[in-house]
Write a structure and sequence with these properties.
Layout (H helix, E strand, L loop, with lengths): L2 H14 L3 E2 L10 E8 L3 E8 L5 E9 L2 E8 H4 L3 E9 L2 E9 L1
Antiparallel strand pairs: 1-2, 2-5, 3-4, 3-6, 6-7
């Protein structure tokens, strides 16, 4: 096996072992939005949402299987319009995205 093939295999393995957080849709949103993510195998996922001042305003948790899943975020979860940072935390790592509620 040459070095280029070995390197590609290692990189593909690292990609499969990481967590991905996609941009919420719709963004910006009024009443609700979906926050999609992908995990390499079944695990507990924690979603934390922070307001512009960095204060945690919402926490959701769940046990999810490998692949893509989503959290539903409702207007009542965040309380007021503005910019937010959504962060998911798993045993495979964490990822963050910005989102906006009108």
């Amino acid at each position: 096996m040459n070095a280029a093939i070995a390197s590609a295999t290692v990189n593909q393995t690292n990609i499969r072992q990481s967590v991905a957080l996609y941009q919420n849709s719709p963004n910006p949103f009024l009443e609700m939005t979906l926050l999609w993510f992908s995990i390499p195998s079944a695990t507990q996922v924690v979603l934390r949402i922070f307001n512009e001042q960095g204060r945690e305003v919402c926490v959701k948790t769940g046990a999810y299987n490998a692949g893509e899943s989503n959290f539903v975020i409702h207007r009542a979860d965040l309380r007021e319009p503005g910019f937010y940072t959504a962060r998911i935390e798993t045993t495979f790592g964490s990822a963050s995205r910005k989102m906006m509620m009108y």
